[in-house]
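To: structure desk
From: M.T.
Subject: fold request, one chain
Message: Could you run this one when you get a chance? Sequence is below, nothing fancy, just the single chain.
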Amino acid sequence: MSLRHAWSRSAHLLGRRLLLKATTSPSTFAASTRQLSISPSLFEAAEPFKPTPEGEKKREDQQRRRNIAIGASLFIVWVSTHGLLLWRRRRENRTLNKDLPPIDIEEFVTRYLSTGKVNKIVYQPAFNVANVYLSHPDEPSKAKAMAMFSYLPDQIARPPDVRFDFDEGFDSLKLTLEAAMKAFFPEGNAPQFSVENDQFPSMREFGFIFLATLFTLAALMAGK
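Reply: Done. Structure tokens follow.
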């Protein structure tokens, strides 16, 4: 073995011993431990998120726009259902005008009111017309049969028998009818009949409008 080779081998062994000693030295191990130690502050609870003024303003703007959209949608539904029901009434009124043209009130009083044939008068101020339902001999049996198959009021379940025009309003109509009954029946034995003011919207129509609006509100809130 040459001197150069022996020297190289001795240097290699010396390097390995120094490396082993360095890696197992207490001071080196402690230093390595200090370098690898995890800071306890990493496990401390993080501070709660605080929104910035810009983010808070953006959320307020979004909420305001959403409230405006909900209000506009409810208003549209409210107006649309009113318009739909009014259009339905106008269509029914046009159909009745063709099938049963209104007579004047003088003819109605003479032909029907004076004979005691009137059972019910339903005045519609939107059209200045009154729908009249007469009393028939078989009226009780008709009413009983109709009640078995329909829960609708009489003026909805069947068409009127007579119609007459009156432009002076519901209160004036009641006074006119009372005066006519006193004239035809001075002794006070006048037949009884009912007089109703069918304003728009009626309670049934208002219930439909309210339910449609409430359903729209529920749908909008569910999609929040």
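Reply (cont.): The two ends are 89 Å apart (CA to CA). Let me know if you need anything else for the meeting.
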